[in-house]
From TrEMBL, chain A:
Residues 19-119 form the Fibronectin type-III domain. It is found in: Cell membrane. It comes from Enhydra lutris kenyoni. Residues 366-376 have a biased composition (Acidic residues). This is Interferon alpha/beta receptor 2. InterPro entries: FN3_dom (IPR003961), FN3_sf (IPR036116), Ig-like_fold (IPR013783), Interferon/interleukin_rcp_dom (IPR015373), Type-II_Cytokine-TF_Rcpt (IPR050650). It comes from the Eukaryota. Keywords: Cell membrane, Disulfide bond, Glycoprotein, Membrane, Phosphoprotein, Receptor, Signal, Transmembrane, Transmembrane helix. The chain crosses the membrane at residues 248-268. GO terms for molecular function: interleukin-22 receptor activity; type I interferon receptor activity.
Automatic annotation (TrEMBL), chain B:
SUPFAM superfamilies: 4-helical cytokines (SSF47266). Belongs to the alpha/beta interferon family. Keywords: Antiviral defense, Cytokine, Disulfide bond, Secreted. It is found in: Secreted. Pfam families: Interferon (PF00143). Signal peptide: none annotated. It comes from the Eukaryota. PANTHER family: INTERFERON KAPPA, TYPE I INTERFERON. Transmembrane segments: none annotated. This is Interferon kappa. It comes from Enhydra lutris kenyoni. InterPro entries: 4_helix_cytokine-like_core, Interferon_alpha/beta/delta. The gene is LOC111159868. GO terms for biological process: defense response to virus. The keyword Secreted applies.
Length: 504, 208
């Protein structure tokens, strides 16, 4: 192999030179590893070109020109010299058209000369598929109202090595950044992509600043080399032609407002703040106007009105005049005079019922005196009562039928049951000229006009079933003699209305 | 008798790990085989690149062309089963070659161990998926009695033979050079190249 024949003497000379240099510089270097420690190599894909660059580590060594040679390890075809990379002053070489096969190990030798003296020899092997560094391609951006066109400049003819790179190893990434929001776009590249490649970034906001950057992303998770960022400010949307995004935003805003309004109404209605319920109970239902205007009257109760009449009573001095045969002992036969007042009348007959007819005064269980005024007053009031009780009515009828001789009906009893709870009381004028129409009673009379002993008395009467205000007659009856004597002597004491009750 | 429970306790934890490993391998989805193969193969490729600093210049005179099979080099798309069988053959042969590595070379031992572990896992994954395909193929043969399937099976056998021959040449080269440092460096470069082409094959599995 030519490479192996020429390599040994050249390497020995270089070795001596390097050793001398290193002794001068105070740096020791080992023989086998001389070449790869002298330079730093780098293979990059720059603008779709495979560029091999190198740098001498020892900066004191500055060659004038370089010569590059290479060989493929899997193909023992010898060392190959790159003509356009021989005696070059630049420290890089374009090997795009030289290295066509990607998965090969290329052994490269770079000799640095000063004049005809080899200053440094650098040797390195590259497995291109694993070591190639991908620089981003050149691109331009064109901004519109709501989108940006990104033009990536591909070469008119894509090298073979790039075809395989783009097909199997690389993905073109276009980054769009606005503020802190970064979006990545991965355009699909054809296998034979050539010329300018245009990618459109749409759905952008007008009058907004966007920055675009592109790079090749290795599919094997190798290092990424990002392109410089290019920024642009999109044009504002025109009035005549409103952007679709603004219109959509307006529609969405309207829907949101309507939704908020409707939900507020629903909530207020459910809470009861508005549209209060009007389903009242039946009792409070006033829609039935007739029932409201003309309510049903409660059933009427049997009411008997009682009028309370003031009775001016005075203690009458009994003028015992025994000449008069009209003995007061005979209570039943005592005539009654009425001077405009009330007459106290004994209980006479006239009441329906066997008891009243058969009973004598001595057997009277009730104080006749006490009952007489009741009777009289009841009779008087019954004249004004709208619905007197039947019994009372009967009594009055009998009384009117009598000609002051009710006392002749001895033994009749009148029992009144007066319900005090249903008493309607009213007062009459004392100066009333018209005396109340009362039946004449043979008993005492009271002058209503006498106000000295005016003591109002309150009576209670009622319809049927009333109860007396005073004790009911008991089974025990006073002695008839006592009764008679009481009647004769205690006429003025028969009626005691000190506390409003007629008592004996 | 008392030592048995202790032995059981000591072996229980490793047994559980092995069981989990076997279960994990057995539960591997063959639909993701292409992804796994591509990833492991590229990883082995990078390990081979880093295990040695650089190719010695003095070894350039001993380089040899080992003639990787054309089916691997070409961009044609073979059938899926052939790709899996080729992967299987390549993994076995490469594993056997790296097992012959001696300590005379300056390779990083850790990198070499990782390469061997990756190849071993790859083999287990491929065995599982190939067995599944074999069962499906037998069922299909009983149903269709199609001669095409039988003829298709011959193709992968030939390609596997070519691969086997390729690796035999490599093995013979090592033995001829007596496993010298230059021989290992030349073999390292060649197998790295082989790994690259198989990594492209894995992408074809996905497209299929």
């Amino acid at each position: 192999m030519l490479w192996s024949q020429n390599a040994s003497p050249l390497r020995s000379q270089n070795l001596c030179f390097v050793v001398c240099i290193s002794l001068l510089s105070g740096v020791l270097s080992s023989l086998p590893e001389l070449s790869d420690k002298s330079c730093t190599f780098k293979v990059t894909l720059r603008n779709f070109r495979v560029i091999l660059s190198w740098e001498v580590k020892n900066h004191s060594i500055v060659p004038d020109h370089y010569t590059l040679q290479y060989t493929v390890i899997s193909r023992p075809d010898g060392v190959k010299t790159v003509e356009h990379c021989s005696n070059i002053t630049a420290s890089f070489c374009d090997l795009t058209d030289v290295w066509e096969v990607l998965p090969e190990t290329y052994a490269v030798t770079v000799d640095g000369f000063r004049g005809n003296t080899t200053l440094v020899t650098c040797f390195v092997d590259f497995f291109l598929a694993a070591y190639i560094s991908l620089e981003p391609p050149e691109f331009d951006i064109v901004n519109f109202i709501d989108h940006i066109n990104v033009n990536v400049n591909f070469p008119p003819v894509l090298p073979k090595i790039l075809e395989e790179l783009l097909q199997f190893h690389l993905s073109l990434i276009i980054e769009e950044q606005s503020g802190e929001i970064v979006k990545k776009h991965n355009p699909v590249l054809d296998e034979n992509v050539i010329g300018n490649f245009t990618y459109v970034i749409d759905k952008l906001l007008p009058n907004t600043n966007y920055c675009v950057s592109i790079y090749f992303m290795p599919r094997n998770l190798e290092a990424i080399r990002r392109s410089p960022v290019k920024c642009t400010l999109l044009q504002p949307a025109r009035d005549t032609g409103s952007s679709e995004s603004a219109r959509i935003g307006g529609i969405i805003t309207m829907f949101l407002i309507a939704a908020v309004f409707i939900s507020t109404i629903i909530i207020l209605k459910r809470v009861g703040y508005i549209c209060l319920r009007n389903d009242f109970p039946k009792v409070l239902n006033f829609n039935n106007l007739s029932a409201w205007v003309f309510p049903e009257m409660p059933p009427l109760e049997a009411v008997a009105f009682v009028e309370v009449i003031h009775i001016n009573r005075k203690k009458k001095v009994w003028n015992y005049n025994y000449n008069d045969e009209s003995d007061s002992n005979d209570e039943a036969t005592a005539p009654l005079t009425s001077t405009g007042g009330y007459t106290k009348h004994g209980l006479l007959s006239g009441l329906p019922g066997p008891t009243s007819a058969s009973s004598a005064t001595g057997q009277d269980c009730l104080e006749p005196d006490t009952e007489e005024p009741n009777l009289s007053e009841l009779e008087a009031e019954s004249l004004m009562a709208p619905e007197p009780s039947p019994r009372l009515g009967k009594l009055l009828q009998d009384r009117f039928s009598e000609d002051g001789s009710s006392t002749e009906e001895a033994g009749d009893k009148i029992i009144f049951n007066v319900n005090l709870s249903s008493v309607f009381v009213s007062t009459l004028d004392d100066d009333s000229d018209i005396p109340p129409v009362l039946p004449s009673f043979p008993e005492e009379t009271y002058d209503l006009e006498d106000s000295h002993t005016l003591e109002p008395s309150f009576l209670a009467s009622g319809g049927e079933g009333t109860q007396p205000p005073f004790p009911t007659p008991s089974a025990e009856c006073p002695c008839p003699e006592d009764v008679l004597s009481d009647k004769n002597d205690n006429s003025e004491s028969d009626v005691d209305i000190g506390d409003g009750y007629i008592m004996r | 008798m008392s030592t048995k429970p202790n032995v059981i306790r000591k072996c229980l934890w490793p047994a559980c790990l092995v069981g989990l490993l076997i279960t994990g391998i057995l539960s591997l989805d063959c639909n993701l085989l292409h992804f796994y193969l591509r990833k492991v193969t590229w990883q082995n490729l990078r390990l081979l690149s880093s295990t040695s600093s650089s190719f010695p210049a003095e070894c350039l005179s001993e380089t040899k062309a080992f003639e990787l099979p054309q089916e691997i080099l070409s961009h044609t798309q073979p059938v899926k089963r052939y790709i899996k069988e080729a992967f299987y053959e390549m993994s076995i042969q490469a594993f056997n070659i790296f097992s012959q590595y001696t300590l005379k070379s300056t390779w990083e031992s850790d990198d070499l161990k990782q390469i061997q572990i990756g190849l071993d896992q790859q083999l287990q994954y491929l065995e599982q998926c190939l067995e599944e395909e074999e069962k499906e193929k037998e069922d299909l043969k009983e149903m269709t009695e199609d001669g095409m399937n039988w003829s298709g099976a011959l193709v992968p056998q030939l390609s596997s033979l070519e691969l086997r021959r390729y690796f035999n040449r490599i093995d013979n080269f090592l033995k001829e050079k007596r496993h010298s440092h230059c021989a290992w460096e030349i073999i390292r470069a060649e197998i790295r190249r082989c790994f690259y082409y198989f990594q492209k094959f894995a992408a074809l599995l996905k497209k299929k």
